[in-house]
Design a protein that fits this description.
2 domains, five-stranded parallel β-sheet, alpha/beta, four-stranded antiparallel β-sheet, Arc Repressor Mutant, subunit A, single chain
Amino acid sequence: MASILLIEDDRTIQMALEFALTRAGYEVSVASDGDAGLEAAKDCDPDLILLDVLLPKRSGLDIARALRAGESSTPIIMLTALDQEADKIAGLDAGADDYVTKPFSTAELLARVRAHLRRARIKDDPPPIIETGALRIDTRAARVLKSGQPVRLRNKEYDLLVALASREGSLCTRPWLSERVWGETFLPTSRTLDTHVRRVRRAIDGDGWTYIHTERGMGYRFEATREGGDRS
C-alpha cells in the first residue's frame, strides 16, 4: 500500500482528500501547517507528498526546497490557489514535480497521484511496453507502432517520445526534458525541444488521437486524448 502525506491547512479540503485517498487504497498521513508537514515528511518517508503552497508557519515552497536540499526524491504535487504562470514556475523551481490548481477535480488529482507513483516505481527505466491510444512503444526493440503500422523516428525524436510517454499524465518540464534527452542544461532561447516536439507530433498524432499537450511556459504533458484538445 502506497503512503501519501497530505500537507493542507484547509480543514474541508483536508478531510475530503483524506477520505478520497483512503478510499482509493492509500495510507494517508495529514499535517496542517508547514513545520509539522516538514517533520512528517522527514519522519514518515512517504511515497508521495500532496503539498499546499499557502500554509501557516512555513510555506509549501519552503518545504519543497528543504526536502530537495536534503536530497529527497519523493514525488511532490503542489496544491495551489495561485494560478498565475509565475506561481506555477516558482513551485516547480522549488522542487515540485507537478501542480494542481484549486478548485480541482478529485478524479484528476487521483490520476496524477497514480502517474507519479508509477514513475517513482520504474525510476529511470522505461517500461518494456507502453500502450496508449493507438500507440504501442516497445522500448526493448526501440520500435513504435501507430494502429499497428511502424512509425519512423530519428534517434532524438524516439528518445523524446519515450521520455514523455514514460511519465504519462505527468508534467515534463523543459529543463528536465533537455537534460534527459540531450544531456544539456536547458537554454530558454533554444528551439531544439520545440522543433523535436513538432516532429514527434506529426509522426504519432492521427487515427483520432493526440498525445503531447503543451503546458504553457513550463513544458509538456503526454496523455492520449481524442483529437481536438489543446496542444499549442
